[in-house]
Amino acid sequence: MNSSDATYCVDERGFFGRYGGVYVPEILKPNTDALSACYRQIIESEAFQHEYHSLLRDYVGRPSPLWLSPSLSRRYGRRVYLKREDLNHTGAHKINNALGQILLARAMGKTRIIAETGAGQHGLATATVCALFDMPCTVYMGQVDIARQQPNVAKMRLLGADVRAVESGNQTLKDAVNEALRDWCSHPSETFYLMGSAVGPHPYPDLVERLQAVISKEICAQLLEKEGREYPDMAVACLGGGSNAAGTFHRFLNEKSVRLVCAEADGLGIVGKSAATIIRGCDGILHGARTIVMQDEDGQITEPYSISAGLDYPGVGPLHAHLAQSGRAEMVAVTDGEALAAAYELNRSEGILPAIESAHALGALGKLAWKQEQVVVVTLSGRGDKDIETYLKHCSKYINQ
Ligand SMILES: *Cc1c(COP(=O)(O)O)cnc(C)c1O
């Protein structure tokens, strides 16, 4: 398929081009079918939209600002705007999705929430909305991630969540997703699986994109006010599972004048020490969907590596696999060192400490072949408070120079 006849909406079978679908055990099929049958109708209803947008405004603090970054604009000779998802309640874009999904769970009569988390940002957002809606919450998290993300684990427990350590596999995000899927198989009728990114079986990738689309909608309104036009020339986001990128790109997918750029985490920049799934991976099936995955010659999923726990995932959402395969979006590999340098620079020049995930999107700016773009929007998906230890550990290389 070439990009001229590509469409970027999910089809009735749950595919984006050749990616997506529902590859789940028989026992889960009734659950994904039930969700597929009702999600559009519920989230498009007036009652849902009213409650969702009231919560985004009064609880999350939206709209998030669109900040014209003086230092990045100077450096690149363009007007570079930062979409400040870091200023949301709980510190990242994850809360947009968690609020929408818990409203959906309640509308479907579900009484128990489960989730998986890597860096803990999605677990924190889920535990937060479960406190707000008084629902029991179980969060699966790899033992290795529990050890390296203590502040978020403590916050989840204070919020009343049951954080369960996963000791299978490499004890990171992939294994936590497996465990959450297993839980869903054992308690299919009362449990809602609150998925943290634009991944998993249909309809999750489409559902999560729709709930994060508020990012794109606000960018259009804010650019209209500041630039007199709704569309930027380029939109840039970091790519883990793909939720902040999907939310950033949503309105621009069919607007070919907008260049779309995804920053993948390339870790140490070598095979085996990278999490740049699309750049280094190939077609496979992971967590209920056909997508691009990191795997060995036997089709075994290989362990990704990135300094950023939120991008350290061996798969990617099917929309993004399709955007890459059809040529609609470009993928840029950004190493740990490039992301760290970009984070220090923004912090020192503007007093904004980005999440290490978001710093990859900033790092991509320095690696692009620039064309005529004048107005650029970079999504700052989260704040760096959770990454203080990582930043301090590496800071001698970057400060006082
Ligand atoms: C989880 C997370 C990401 C990666 O997830 P996506 O679904 O790709 O957006 C990026 N940035 C932050 C701050 C996160 O918490």
Strand order of the largest sheet: 3-4-14-9-10-13
The ligands bound in this entry are: pyridoxal-5'-phosphate
**Poorly predicted ranges:** 1-5
Strand content: 15-25%
How much is the average pLDDT? Answer: 95
Shape estimate: globular
Number of strands: 14
Number of helices: 16
Distance between the termini: 49 Å
Content-based structural category: alpha/beta
Q: In this structure, how is the largest beta sheet organized? A: 6 strands, mixed
The Rg value, from CA coordinates, equals 19 Å
H/E order of the elements? Answer: EEHHEHEHEHEHHEHEHHEHEHEEHEHHEH
Percent in helix: 40-55%
Overall description:
By secondary structure, this protein is α/β, with parallel strands linked by helices. Helices cover 42% and strands 17% of the residues. The chain has helices at 29-44, 46-60, 70-76, 94-107, 121-133, 143-148, 150-158, 173-186, 204-212, 214-227, 243-249, 277-280, 318-325, 336-350, 356-365, 388-394; strands at residues 15-16, 19-20, 66-68, 79-84, 112-117, 137-142, 162-166, 191-193, 234-239, 259-265, 282-286, 289-293, 329-334, 375-380. Strands 3-4-14-9-10-13 form a 6-stranded mixed β-sheet, with helices on both faces. Strand 11 (282-286) and strand 12 (289-293) form a beta hairpin. The model is unreliable at 1-5 (pLDDT under 50). The protein binds pyridoxal-5'-phosphate.
Question: What is the secondary structure topology, with strand pairs?
Answer:
Blueprint: E1 15-16, E2 19-20, H1 29-44, H2 46-60, E3 66-68, H3 70-76, E4 79-84, H4 94-107, E5 112-117, H5 121-133, E6 137-142, H6 143-148, H7 150-158, E7 162-166, H8 173-186, E8 191-193, H9 204-212, H10 214-227, E9 234-239, H11 243-249, E10 259-265, H12 277-280, E11 282-286, E12 289-293, H13 318-325, E13 329-334, H14 336-350, H15 356-365, E14 375-380, H16 388-394
Parallel strand pairs: 4-14, 5-6, 5-8, 6-7, 9-10, 9-14, 10-13
Antiparallel strand pairs: 1-2, 3-4, 11-12
